[in-house]
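As a warm-up, study this chain.
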Amino acid sequence: MKAFHTYGFLKKLPYITNLTASVRDVLTPLLFIFVTINASPLLAQNGKSYYVDSKNGNDDNNGNTIQQAWKTLNKVNNQPFKSGDNIFFKKGCTFDGQLIIKQSGQAGKNVVYSSYGSGANPIINGLDTLTDWKPLGNGIWETTCLIKDSKLNILLLNNIVTSMGRFPNSDSKNGGYLTFDSHVGNNTITDKNLGNNINWTGAEIVVRRTHWILERGKITSHISNNLTYESKSTIEFKDNYGYFIQNDVRILDRLGEWFYDSEGKKLIMFFGNNEPSKYVVCVPKYNTLVDISASAIMLKGITLQGSNCATISLAKCAGVTISQNNLKFSGKYGIQIAGANITIAGNVIEKSNDIGIKGTFMPSGKVTNNIIDKTGLLPGQGFDYTGIDLYGDDLTVSNNTITNSGYDGIKLDGNNATIKNNVIRGFTSVIDDGGGIYLPGKLFKNRNVLYNIISDGIGAPDGTTKVGNSPSEGIYADDSTSYINIIGNTISNVAGHGIKIHNAHDIVIKGNTLYNNKTQLILDHDKNPNGGLVRNITVTKNTFVPGPATQNTLTLASPTDDVKDYGNIDSNYYVNTTGNSPITVKTSLGQLRDAQLATSITSTIFDKNSKNFALLSPSGNNLKAAPANNVLIKTNKTSKPQTIILGNGTFVDLNGKQYIKSVNLAPFTSLILLKK
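Now compare it with the structure written out below.
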């Protein structure tokens, strides 16, 4: 902070010298606070400020001024900071090593870790560049790799996250999966085509046990066509599903494929005819890059890169704020949290190999305004493959943008939770039977899913028997979930169901727009012993727009004829582009009985006040084309009102209002328009 005499400075301002002494006495301390805030990197909170400069600092300095800055993270880690202290890292600098935060602040007097100066945010770097490669022959090279874990969870080749070698390669048939025919017990599979020309004992197997589990374990025995491996799962295998082999030197055949020898501490990589010196290969040096075991902490405005497990770990803490940081290259988790009243706000979290934000216990937490991208996209190198996965009561997840997740966009366990105004795009690409928003089957109450924009649930059929029929859901309320409000969401282009209610009860589905999903909404009761009856479901004021004739609008499924008892379905809008009945019934009683039930409940029980918009061709026949040719969906994915430009022509909404050239949309809303 620049030092000057405050009152001497103020006397130079003409409007100050003309004030009375009493007024001047009041304004002077207020202006002093203003000047202090703007002259220093951050308000000092009545504590001390310390500076760290990796280029020009010296750990023998006192750290109290920019000129006396420290140099290393090791110096910072060993200081007894107190409430209200600020630790500033110089912008444009890179700091190698871990940041370990152990001293707590107090409420209103955080210990703050932030930045000063100009230029790019400071970088805390946990990556190590590997050199001294030695040839092993056939394009394979090795070097020493001294990571602190038995597994290497992430590797970068020229700054690109690269997967370990696998057999078959990912671009082989069936998406790179072999098929097992049967299984024995919990950890042995049989593939009649495997043989034992190569004994895979000691390698890793990655097994698609079910749609939602891609399990990784070390192979302990390979006898004939049988592979036995280390498994912790109790979920039954699905025979005729897929598997592949990884982490073995014998399968390296593509540039950048690698194998980590944990016993010899060697990294082995395939370079082919290329020299390793032409490439930059980086691995993480630490399991955790920023380790926080203190309360009343703020970490703000820093780039954090490279961890074998969690880039930021919060444990046994409360009142911590992680704000406006950029996290990338996390072996498992971008942020791992076990603490109360934690705020995660305004961060960019990208390229995490398992979960972007993992809250194992996070009561009263807030996750807001973050961008989470490219999470869990490498099969066999994650477990959950999820953007945000939280557990705890009184959680708020709002205004986040979550793109390109291998499984769920958001998964949330807990009571009194709000998931609101999030944009979720691209999910269930590695494993499926999950959703853009997934609410697990537990007896939690009062969860609100409000005004989210969800699209492009991809589905992951490779390694399963469901070719072309992937169970990807926009919003998924699973076994025994209850007391949920699903209101005002827009869900489109999902391979499975826009909204799936599975063995759940006491749920309100209101004012949602569901467009071009394989099925727009399903209320599904099956014989799963973990589930319950579908009851007290309210479906009202929703807009359903199926696409091709192969899509369904609203499906009621049950092993019996109890679908009439599911709840209340009324006052909805159906845009009929398929010529099919809006409600489809699926039971175990046969197609004729299903059709009779659908007709009966539509005419006597449900949808007495709903509106059905049949799009007609000039000849008067129901139009069979996809809705993209005849129906527009316009969406505002931002937190501000927007004017959306329309194409040529005149459009009407489902209430008959006419639009030409443009339409105004409120934040996180959408509108279906029919072209006249």
